[in-house]
Here is the input.
Amino acid sequence: MLFMHIHILGICGTFMGGIAVLAKQAGHKVTGCDAGVYPPMSTQLEAQGIALTEGFDPAQIGLEPDMFVIGNVVTRGNPLMEEILNRGLPYVSGPQWLAEHVLKDKWTLAVAGTHGKTTTSAMLAWILEYAGLQPGFLIGGVPQNFGVSARLTDSPFFVVEADEYDTAFFDKRSKFVHYHPRTAVLNNLEFDHADIFPDLAAIETQFHHLVRTVPGNGLVVANGRESSLDRVLARGCWTPVERFGTAQGWTIGAAGAVAFKEEFQGMLNWPLLGEHNRMNALAAIAAARHAGVPAGFGIEALARFENVKRRMEVRGVVSGITVYDDFAHHPTAIATTVAGLRHKVGNARILAVLEPRSNTMKLGVMKDALPGSLEEADQVFCYGANLGWDAAAALTPLGDKAQTFDDLDGLVAAVTAVARPGDHVLVMSNGGFGGVHEKLLAALAR
Here is the structure.
């Protein structure tokens, strides 16, 4: 293997940070830069001995790496990127580098879908680990069973969270077309990423590009309840397909009985909430079975699955009030998360605290679906700063149970004023949300 020095532009994103860790573990020299080098990724990378530079100063050319690896946060006009282009220096996208230097000789198991990619990837990696297969992985979150988001091993198996977002400013294909999986999970498919996709049909086209790359001796594991995925597969599929969520394939009852083609496989006993996680489990069990792990063993492994950080993660309990952190940001995921918590807590009050900060939510494309997704919450507190639309107007259908705030401290004060013992405060955002969890816990403690 030829060792190289790579310099990663946009290194503090979860995906590019994961690539940095994999490259370092493979023996390459890794440096990187980003705007806003901050924890937790900065500390994770520095612990690996990876030198970070703040900003995109063209002087970083002086590091003289063998290859610049470009994250999709980088655009034309970025001063360092402009210098790389002007000098004709070698550069490559993160997904392409991953494919050529990590996945090339691996049995890649790729998990795609609008929702549940991170959790399902973590479940799949854990099943393979429990079976003694020691998989490598790159996941867009931190699975608590492993404590890291990426690792490289000598195992032939590699699990990758396969994102449909575009690859780089110079490659507008979805990241996942680079991965050439032998096992491909299509978890679900809805409209998202309104900043780069005009409609659902455009995303279906990208998913079909992924299907075209799966070999005939591979397996496509597809959600059998999604008409969007039926349309994708109807365009052409050259690979065996196993569906989950339907009697013709993998099913799971509310009590946890798992069956394949109506043949009982085992009972799943675990603490995770919601139908969405039962569906994620089926996808992971089916994909692991393709890699040689019997379904019963996969079910046994999931009984010891500890979920992913920021997936209904309890951040603290103060005076009988529980504060959760969840990554939900798309209306479907918000509805699913609230429903899962409702199932767990029964009639106890749920105070939903929401920051609509994904690119799609900021554009307001999904704003009309937001009130319906929050119906099962008792009170809704929405942080509406930096939106291109009026959050208060959008949440009008919820009546006086919804409040919006442009000031984070005001939001914290309002939640604290109404919270009482036995309440469940569910914080949902795909970002740091200004450290609102710690602010809430501190305010509740006072």
